[in-house]
Design goal:
This protein is mainly β. Helices cover 0% and strands 36% of the residues. It has a single domain, classed as Jelly Rolls (Sandwich), CATH 2.60.120.1340.
Length: 212
């Protein structure tokens, strides 16, 4: 093996092209070395998933007060700093909950807590009259029941700053509980089992996003 030690590699002419290797060759960047770019990179494959943020909540959060303001589930707050505003964030959530009295509905929504909005970035449903803009809604008919809600959104990051996102709930009647059923009896039955709520953010590189 030959070794060539140089500081700068330049073409013979000011507008020339410098070629390293030829077709079929492998150029190896050794372990511990850094390839720093201060210009434009062409024909490199995008990074696909750039970053992942995730939080899991197993507590028994409760809230009383029918049709009041949205209630923040603080155990699912999640901070994410996007690498680029051209990238896209895939929000994935799984929410478990129950109500007292039964025979009622509740809603979940994603929210940008840093900018105090749940209506931006395509996180929730579009506006339609005075209707609430939620991401998912559900209904149960017994206080020993619980419900699992899947949530998903394709979100444009508003900035490359550190942003705290979260999940809010709003319920139609009386009292709401998370990750179980409302009566909370200590029983080995399926009705009174515990659940697990999660919130994940996957950031995708803009180079792989197809729209249509």
């Amino acid at each position: 093996m030959s070794e060539l030690k140089i500081n700068t590699l330049q073409p013979l002419t000011a507008t020339g092209t410098t070629v390293i290797g030829q077709s079929g060759d492998t150029i190896t960047i050794p372990s511990g070395a850094t390839m720093a770019n201060s210009g434009t990179v062409l024909n490199f494959a995008p990074a696909d998933i750039v970053k992942v943020s995730s939080v899991t909540y197993s507590g028994r959060a409760t809230h009383s007060g029918a049709n009041t303001a949205w209630y923040a589930i603080t155990g699912l707050n999640l901070t994410h700093q996007a690498a680029s505003t051209s990238n896209r964030l895939l929000f994935i959530g799984q929410m478990i909950g129950g109500l007292n009295p039964h025979g009622s509905s509740w809603l979940f929504r994603f929210i940008d807590r840093t900018n105090s909005t749940g209506d931006a970035g395509n996180m929730n449903a579009n506006a339609q009259g005075s209707r609430l803009r939620a991401n998912s809604k559900c209904y149960i008919d017994n206080t020993s029941w619980g419900n699992c809600n899947s949530m998903m959104a394709w979100v444009t990051p508003p900035s490359t700053g550190s942003i705290q996102y979260g999940v809010d709930v709003k319920h139609q009647h009386a009292d709401w509980v998370m990750n179980g059923n409302y009566d909370n009896s200590d029983s080995g039955t399926v009705d009174r089992s515990r659940g697990l709520s999660t919130f994940h953010i996957l950031e995708f590189d803009s180079g792989i996003i197809k729209t249509g």
